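User: I'm putting together notes for a lab meeting next week and I want to include a structural view of one of the chains we've been expressing. I don't have a solved structure, so I'd like a prediction I can at least talk through. The sequence is below, exactly as it appears in our construct file.
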Amino acid sequence: MKNEKNPIEKYFPVFVLPTLLCFSMFFLIPFVMGLGLSFTKFTTVTDITGFVGFKNYIRVFTADNEFIHALGFTSLFTIVSIITVNVFSFALALLLTKEIKGTNFFRSVFFMPNLIGGIVLGYIWNLLINGVLLHYVGKDISFKTHYGFFGLVLLTNWQLIGYMMVIYIAGLQNIPGDLLEAAQIDGASPLRILFQVKIPMVMPSITICMFLTLSNSFKMFDQNLALTAGAPEKTTEMLALNIYQTFYNRNANWHGVAQAKAVLFFIIVAVLAYIQLKITNKKEIEH
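Assistant: Thanks for the context. Below is the predicted structure for the 287-residue chain, given as structure tokens.
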């Protein structure tokens, strides 16, 4: 008797097709077009004036120091955000998985900032931070680079901690109870249980949270635009905002350079995400 196909396998192409079409239309095709445009001089997508080879990429590093500064600023911001967001969200997850009253309420409260749009969050924190600084320090956030940096870190933590907390809670709740009981019976201290049982067991959650934090932090645009807009003098300008400013606030001679920046931006994020996933996945295999 001939084996019949599983219904899922039979209709798999039908279900995948809409997603594949959307992915091709809104990501794959624009990316390939953008990659091609990065080697040209153009004013619009349909008005290409000439092929310039790698000149746009060379100009990124030789004629525009702002890109290098934005790369350094974004890298430092991403490192600080990855550490703070994941430490605080994991600590909250540990606290809210204990048998205390009101855990569901606090989970909802911490998760709510994630539901607010980035541009709105940026303006909210702009008003809050500037209000505090003007009242107590007598300075505006745009006057000092370090105010803008820590303002962005604070905003990112407030937005992402609740979301990452939910992922960590799911990971902690999946740890077998008998494993924790066995560790307690063996006389393991709470600190030892945390580092030798809980953290190794939630490594899949750590992998996901670190990936999301890295990608969200490195690609941040709307919060940066709303909170500091790169002020003062573009010292708090991150990569995504720098690319946007290069394309829309300079003449057409910089359009190709902006596109080259966008390609480099994609490569940087992809490489960093790949390295992070390889490192954390290796930790999962070890444990």
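A couple of points you could mention at the meeting. The chain has a mean pLDDT of 88. DSSP finds twelve helices and two strands in the chain.

User: Perfect, that's what I needed.
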